[in-house]
Amino acid sequence: MFLRSRRRAVVAATSALAVMLGLVACSGDDSDPTEEISANRAGAMESYKVGDQFKATEPVSFSTLLLNNANYPAKKDWLFWDELKKRTNVTLEQVEVPGSDYNQKRSVLISAGDAPLIIPKTYHPDENAFVSSGAILPVSDYIDLMPNFKDKMEKWSLGPEIDAIRQSDGKYYLLPGLHEKAWQDYSLVVRTDVLQELGLSEPKTWDDVYAMLKAMKAKYPNLYPMTDRYSQPKPTGNLWNILGSSYGAPGGWGFNHAIWDASAGKYVYTAASDNWKEWVTFLNKLVSEKLLDPESFTQTDDQARSKIATDKSFVITGNAQALVNDYRPDLAKNPKAQMKKIPLPIGPAGEVNPSSRLENGVMISTKAKDNKNFVAMMQFIDWLFYSDTGQEFAKLGVEGTTFTKDASGKAQIVDDINVAGLHPKATKHLQKDFGFYNGVFAYGGNPELVQAFFSPEEQEYQKVLNARPRAPWVVPPPAPFTDEEREQATLWETTLRDYVDQQTLRFILGQRPLTDWDAYLGELRSKNMDQYMELQQKAYDRYKKEHG
Amino acid sequence: MVTGIRPTRGYRAFVVVNAIILTGVVLVTLYPFVNIVARSMSDQAYIISGQVNLLPKGFNLQAYGHVTSDPMFWRNYGNTVFYTIVATGVALVLTTTYAYVLSKKHLKGRTFLVAVAVFTMFFNGGLIPNYILVTNLGLKNSVWAIALPNAISVFNLLVMKAFFESLPAELEEAAAVDGLNTYGVLLRIVLPLSKAIVATMVLFYAVSFWNSWFSAFLYMDRQELFPVTVYLRNLIAGSTGAEMSGAIAESDEAQVDATIKSVTIVLTTLPILTIYPFIQRYFVSGITLGAVKG
User: Fold this and answer.
1) Residue A260 pLDDT > 80
2) Average pLDDT, stretch A208-217?
3) Is the pLDDT at A36 greater than 70, yes or no?
4) Which of B223, B247, B258 sits opposite A439 (nearest CB)?
5) How far does the signal peptide extend, from start to end residue (chain A) (predicted)?
6) Which residue in A283, A393, B5, B202 has the fewest CB atoms around it within 10 Å?
């Protein structure tokens, strides 16, 4: 979720290039997919179905883009590569890209027609930029080669979610990672020892949060009970998202210009809705009563952390990782300090889980289609990313070497291997030394697998969140733009987004009175909000008519 | 130093104010360096709580041990040294010869050759065409992908051309009369007189190649070919570019320590910093003074 807007900027900038280079990368004809691939079955299994172990009938190799994470850089001697070769007869030729600039290199490679066949670690809507150039494969034409993908899609009823990533031609170009259950990681993190001191219980709703901050303020009048981070480059990306979600109008990281209003059966402009106004009013109240640090919206993460570390504030937002890696170590010198991530507070939108069940996924280069091993490659991707054994292998490794299973089938990483802080004294590391759970090949799956390395407290948290129904706007009906529409929409979106963020912040900080709301709506209209919504509605109607 | 002329009051006031302002500038410039060095020897907890300024707190050198024990760091460090030397060498030869030729007023088509160079200052083919060019020339994954596209910096070229033009033509005429050909004149007469500008160019080119990361990032597909700047960038920027949600956030064992980042910054910038004092003396010598007599 981090730096989502920067990603957008990159996408916007590169889409122009991608369009320009369509000529270079485009391969042209639109013949029947099943016909062309029949010649490209070298190495493929004759029959390959759910539950089968994929193994190429001859040694094959595929080029793949590999995000190189600074924390566990790729090594040639990873067990992952050897075991993968042993099980599937596949060697992956890696094009290693530093994680810091992965998206940029991916854009250059695809636009220059030099992309590897397999392009993993791609978040929707990044693939939009490459669709019109014809450089990436409409994978939806080939899912008959992928029994496990189809199986999971049906079993977990992911159809509507996948429909939402279809392009205006009705096809999708990204094989997304699939979760059985939504995984909402970010929430509020609270000093529970301060709660105890004040005799308060954990807040369940945002109103409780307000009451809690009020009580903290009464006891410690000289400080701001809550501060926040994730304000680079846009103000409190996380808080605006989780709070907005609770009101049915996510901002920040979760911001979409148009949001699906299920009751009205149409798209509405998120930042002009009453829901948006309500949470802005709520934050304005927190700031004006000096409960929320006004610096929250501009300070760096480190500044926010230092305020938590030095008892200047007791409440902040974060995820499980921020709790374990940042807040707790920062507070280690204060023995009585206790921090906990509380279940996402509930707002007017009710008890909802605002997370999507789709993860980052895989794009396939169009060149792959003409590769004689194409069918084998699709079977291989299906096995590695979507089969139960493939997912278990990519995440946990090899049974007996890196993990063991007890009688009930619950997997356990062996004692001498550390991962996610499970065995801090171990000499080896699952990611660094073995290459499993490396963020490129391992994501999604059933909850047991997704939560395999979660601490008990995080599992507890997920239990609460998983019991909540999915928020209605998480799976909107498809309304994809055509290329020309997207170009126009992007222009409008950029000005609108800047204006929304700027004015929302002014309302929150009290620099602009909330009585000015109607004037604000007029200003949005002058920035083409209505035309934008018309375009959105047009795209929705067209898609419904053509692909309904 | 001229003595006997008494500085005016205005001048003395100027000197004082000047000294104060320059000292301020020095402090502002120096502070980030000192701060990074202090951080590199401090305990993580003090850095996070914002207590490390000029002096290390919770002094320890563990982070140095940690960084220097990573073989990939040294591998990439070696690459940086290698790329810098090769690229600077290539750049120096090409820039010097080009600039020397351009400095000759009697050269036919000189305006055109200058225009060709200057044109590239304002226009270029763009990222993707450059990438396709370099790839099709087969330069990818080799030092030439870094050295050749950046071999001539037009700014440096023009500086060098201006310097050569300022050399007295009589020197070269005399050399030619004594039987030297063009290359002899360049190598035996002009270059020895141009140590100052050559040293400056070495510095300019070396610093820019040492610090550059983008061409290596673009044209290198394996981490053992990366220069240390790419290593550093990946370490500091982390995986933020690829979005910190999902599996990455879940699987990030720990954010790289603030200490480790600082250590890597110190180790990476140190060598190029230490070059300055050795080259700096060339900046001040006025070598052509008195070269022509009569």
Assistant:
1) yes
2) 96
3) no
4) B247
5) 1-27
6) B5
Q: Which pLDDT does position A14 carry in this prediction?
A: 52
Q: Assess whether the previous peptide bond of A233 is cis (omega < 30° from 0).
A: yes
According to CATH, where is 1.10.3720.10 located in chain B? Answer: 70-284
Determine the distance from the C-alpha atom of residue A3 to the mean position of all C-alpha atoms in its chain, rounded to a whole number.
11
| Confidence (pTM) | 0.84
Q: How far apart are CA B132 and CA A399, in angstroms?
A: 45
Distances (CA, A) of A267 to A373, A544, B235: 43, 14, 42
A508-A512-A513-A519 Cα dihedral, nearest 10 degrees: -110
Beta carbons of A121 and B241 less than 8 angstroms apart: no
Contact by Cβ (8 Å): A98, B217: yes
Which one of A6, A302, A360 has the shortest CB-CB distance to B246? Answer: A360
Nearest to A379 by CA among A366, A364, A397: A364
Using CB atoms, pick whichever of A2, A101, A321 lies closest to residue B217: A101
Q: Which CATH number fits domain A187-258+275-342: 3.40.50.970, 3.30.499.10, 3.30.1360.120, 3.40.190.10?
A: 3.40.190.10
Question: With an 8 Å Cβ cutoff, are A114 and B240 in contact?
Answer: no
Closest CA to B272 of B219, B227, B220, B208: B208
| CB < 8 Å to A187, chain B | none
- Give the per-residue pLDDT at A24: 43
> Percent of chain B scored above 70 by pLDDT?
87
Greater pLDDT, A228 or A183: A228
Q: Do A108 and B218 touch (CB under 8 A)?
A: yes
Q: What is the pLDDT of residue B251?
A: 35
pLDDT in tens, B78-122: 999 999 999 999 999 999 999 999 999 899 999 999 999 999 989
